[in-house]
């Protein structure tokens, strides 16, 4: 396909592999296996398989490969590997890079399951140091000769703290470490992670890529050497590959990704500015607001404030619950990036396993509600949030 195509063109055309029938839409090859014309052909394929030769869906599949090619083209990496979930992607991306005695530095503003993966690695003798990801000095101080990987979410879940991809990459590379970025909150639409120095991008496609809250998925993007080397070897032998059916859903989601994410970001900016300064709020948190601590960085790094807004209610948990229960358009759930707007109370759901102190350390207060903005009409969302704030 053409390198000159813009994102929206790539999102609908990139990676298409048409069968002999010339089908218009991406075909769903719902097959785990492939037939070889002879025993010699089977032997040859196991020895080395070409771009359009497949063995088993845990290793690769034509529908999955279409999705991998499309997402690599959007992120600007040489290759990608599709995984069963965001966590399969992040587990694979990190685990295939380290062995006992190696060291990982990671931002402590982190999704709980990612923290669990690091704990498992620690059990196998990998050193882990957690730092405040927004402070470059802490990254620098944590590096050791054994540091192999620096890992962080470029926009943290749920606190919406923005971490400097370029700054961390410079520190990591000066120490010979590799940078793995979970870019799920920026989505590929606002991602310049490769340009800014990240080596590997790994995230959940369950969120903005599906966009309809239907299927689990994840992806790891990087160089061909890494993706078809250690990453594929690890994921295919440990069972983390994406189902062809889910790849087919993701391909259809990608066609509207740019339209949706931009509409969601516009809605997020509208809701954040309407809510900012409301008497019931301690804070409206949105990287697109000028009072956000990393506003300038967010604009440089993403060119947008993104699709997520947090409101921190002065009245704590009780007020947050009154707010959630008063919402009419926005649903109480825990996915994000969906076409439908979703509100979550992190302290009692997604981040309930952390202690009060651990939550405080990453700015998760009892009054905080995270809202993933959907593609509904922005004025309906503003009205919904404002009436729910009044009711809180
Ligand atoms: C959702 C999410 C994940 C995990 O993705 P799954 O598809 O649910 O496995 C990892 N990191 C972040 C920041 C997420 O928001």
Automatic annotation (TrEMBL):
N6-(pyridoxal phosphate)lysine: residues carrying this PTM: 207
GO function term, MF aspect, one: transaminase activity
Enzyme class: transferase
Top-level taxon of origin: Bacteria
Gene3D superfamilies tied to this protein: Aspartate Aminotransferase, domain 1 (3.90.1150.10), Type I PLP-dependent aspartate aminotransferase-like (Major domain) (3.40.640.10)
Entry keyword set: Amino-acid biosynthesis, Aminotransferase, Methionine biosynthesis, Pyridoxal phosphate, Transferase
Cofactor: pyridoxal 5'-phosphate
UniProt cross-references to CDD domains, sorted A to Z: CGS_like
Entry annotated with the keyword Iron: no
The UniProt record lists the keyword Ligase: no
Catalyzed reactions per annotation: O-succinyl-L-homoserine + hydrogen sulfide = L-homocysteine + succinate
One of the Pfam families matching this protein, by short name: Cys_Met_Meta_PP
Enzyme nomenclature, EC number: 2.5.1.-
Pathway: Amino-acid biosynthesis; L-methionine biosynthesis via de novo pathway; L-homocysteine from O-succinyl-L-homoserine: step 1/1
SUPFAM superfamilies: PLP-dependent transferases (SSF53383)
Quaternary organization: Homotetramer.
The protein's role, per its UniProt record: Catalyzes the formation of L-homocysteine from O-succinyl-L-homoserine (OSHS) and hydrogen sulfide.
Family membership noted in the UniProt record: Belongs to the trans-sulfuration enzymes family. MetZ subfamily.
Name of the protein described by the UniProt record: O-succinylhomoserine sulfhydrylase
Provenance organism: Sedimentimonas flavescens
Lineage summary: Bacteria, Pseudomonadati, Pseudomonadota, Alphaproteobacteria, Rhodobacterales
Gene that this sequence comes from: metZ
């Amino acid at each position: 396909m053409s390198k000159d195509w813009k994102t929206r063109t790539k999102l609908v055309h990139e990676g298409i592999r048409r069968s002999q029938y010339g089908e218009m839409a991406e075909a769903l090859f719902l097959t785990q296996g492939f037939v070889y014309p002879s025993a010699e052909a089977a032997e040859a394929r196991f020895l080395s398989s070409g771009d359009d030769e497949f063995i088993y869906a845990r290793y690769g599949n034509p529908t999955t490969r279409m999705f991998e090619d499309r997402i690599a083209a959007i992120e600007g990496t040489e290759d990608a590997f599709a995984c069963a979930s965001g966590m399969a992607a992040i587990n694979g991306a990190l685990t295939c890079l380290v062995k006992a005695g190696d060291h990982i530095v990671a931002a402590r503003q982190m999704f709980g399951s990612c923290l669990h993966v690091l704990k498992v690695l620690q059990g196998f003798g990998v050193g882990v140091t957690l730092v405040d990801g927004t402070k470059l000095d802490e990254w620098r101080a944590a590096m050791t000769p054994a540091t192999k990987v620096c890992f962080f979410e470029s926009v943290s879940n749920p606190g919406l703290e923005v971490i400097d991809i370029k700054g961390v990459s410079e520190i990591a590379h000066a120490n010979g470490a590799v940078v793995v970025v979970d870019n799920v909150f920026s989505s590929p639409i606002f991602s310049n992670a490769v340009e800014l120095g990240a080596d590997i991008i790994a995230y959940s496609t369950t969120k903005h890529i599906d966009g309809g809250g239907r299927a689990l998925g994840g992806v790891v993007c990087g160089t061909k050497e890494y993706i078809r080397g250690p990453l594929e070897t690890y994921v295919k032998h440990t069972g983390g590959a994406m189902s062809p059916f889910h790849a087919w859903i993701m391909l259809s989601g990608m066609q509207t990704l740019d339209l949706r994410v931009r509409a969601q970001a516009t809605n997020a900016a509208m809701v954040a500015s309407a809510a900012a300064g409301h008497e019931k709020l301690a804070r409206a948190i949105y990287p697109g607001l000028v009072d956000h601590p990393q506003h300038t960085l967010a604009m440089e790094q993403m060119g947008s404030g993104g699709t997520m807004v947090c409101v921190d209610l002065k009245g704590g948990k009780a007020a947050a619950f009154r707010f959630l229960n008063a919402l009419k358009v926005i649903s109480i759930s825990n996915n994000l990036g969906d076409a439908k707007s979703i509100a979550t109370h992190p302290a009692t759901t997604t981040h309930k396993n952390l202690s009060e102190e651990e939550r405080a350390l990453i700015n998760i207060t009892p009054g905080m509600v995270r809202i993933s903005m959907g593609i509904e009409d922005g004025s309906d969302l503003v009205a919904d949030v404002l009436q729910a704030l009044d009711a809180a």
